[in-house]
Amino acid sequence: MIDRKKRLPVALTFLFFLGVFLVVVIQLKDRVFGPRQANILAHMQSTGTCQFCDLTNADLKDLDLRKINLSQAKLSGADLSGANLHKAILSGADLSGANLYKAILSGADLSGANLYKAILSGADLTEANLSRAYLQKAYLGGANLTGGDLFKVDLTRADLTEANLSKTNLSRAILYKAILYRGSLLRANLTQADLTLAFLAEADLSFADLSGVDLSTADLHSVILSDVVFCQTTMPDGKLSNVSCN
Question: How many C-beta atoms lie closer than 10 Å to residue 200's C-beta?
Answer without folding.
Answer: 26
